[in-house]
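Amino acid chain:
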Amino acid sequence: MILPEQPLTDAAILIVDDNAANLALLEAILEEAGFTHLTSHTDPREALEAWQAGHFDLMLLDMRMPHLDGYAVMERLKAQLPADDYLPVIVLTAQIDETTRQRALAAGARDFITKPFDAVEVVQRILNHLEVRAKHNRQRQNALSLSQNVQHQEALLLQQARDLEYFATHHPIVGLPHRPTMTRRLETLIASGTLPLAVLLTRIKPDARLESLAGYDFADRVFHRLGERLIAELDEPQNAGYWGSGSFLALIQGDDEKIQREATRLLRALLAPLELDGYPLSFSARTALVQAPQHGSDAATLLRRAMLTLRMAPSLDVPHLTVFDPVIEQALQERERLIAALREASHARQLRLVYQPKVSLTTGKIVGAEALMRWHHPTLGTVPPLRFIPLAEETGLIADLGHWAIEEALAALVRWHRRCGRLVPVAVNLSPRQLELLRLRGESLDDHVHSLLARHGLPPHCLELELTESSLMQQEETALAELQRLRDLGISLALDDFGTGHSSLARLQQLPVTTLKIDRSLVKGVTGNARHHALLGSVINLGWALSLNVVAEGIETVEEAEILRQLHCPIAQGYYFHRPLPEAEFAALL
């Protein structure tokens, strides 16, 4: 195809004339002019085949030929022309009458070359036409390129529209319908009366070790494979979806027996071992099953209860269905009400401290006190510490409550001193969570305590902070360094509930503690069991060997107190001596 930037002599020309002499003459004229791509035919039928098979820029066509005249040739060629093209034909004719010329032009001819041939005229007419043809070819080429670009852009827009439509309803990685889509699907099934109906929610925990080893997209590909399994197992694939955070959702229709059977089958498929990238994988899962109408008649309620059940379900590597229980929801609602009440209690002065005396087993005198937090709610009544302290730790309230407890205990100590003339050391329980929260805030407990002691004008030795054995053994170096700073200030640190955890003697020697508090579990039963007696004596001796103060907790009988005296335990506390007392009663006792 000739283009404007090419020499016109590069054009491909087809010459059709039943007279071989004419063909030879034209070829000679054109070769002399520099044309090199010439094709000649005496049979117009062969010329048609050649034109259709090749890419010619120009046809020199005789009008009077056997089998097919020039008019018939042009008619057949025009039938095959694209809408944006024309016949590049120059007619070879000896007839110069007006009728012949008009008929040829009507058939599609662009120009005439008369016989006998004038070489200069032949070449000039051909060059003139090829110049026009080259420009026409360029326009067609530009139009085609533009059309292709438009088609490409249309295809891109269409694909983008398809992608947007897909991602509007599906998770982009797992390839299953996402949360909004599955919510709408569940609403549709309920509205159509498709009951009974179950929602099965399954959370697969990704293997963080393999995710780090094989790449961050590893878990995504694992979930994609699990999604394929889920679709393959369901009779209606549109009832499978991805809820997010490793959770798959399936909607199961049928009676209770079918729901149980289908849910178990789906779980087996999800938990089956999988190999990916050469890594063998096994899975454990939490599952939740809620059913309509017994567990709810609308999608929002069913899905909320499924999430609640999933949260409470155990993680197992065998198919196990955790079915929604209304007791779980009631417990959670009560827990949330308790959290809200605890937030209010910290501002409404519903919390108070009581003080359990510590007694010297040698003299019987009160040598200290442990401050214990109590909560009396106006409608809930007395809330046990075992219920509200874990909630305070979970919600972060423990940091403020712990600070308040230390300050309140120190203030009480000052009031006792004024009333009784005695400075009795007081112990306050310390939560590991309290230390953690203060670090997150950019604060430190030693700064807080030092400030409180200075405000109340008290020496450091009058305050003791107690941490449980299990929590203290698990503290990181940062927390232990902070406890050491407290110890350096002169504040006592007690290892509480000793005997309930798993202490290492080497670890115990490294801890900055000053006091060992023996748990009630080591004291209980000591009166009738020689092994208990020996064990209790060994623990007391261990405390002495480590130069620690020793305090026995939970003493309830005179026999227990007497055995502790015999074993040379210096200090004890418990109901046998005194129950925890309000501040005024403790002051009166002093």
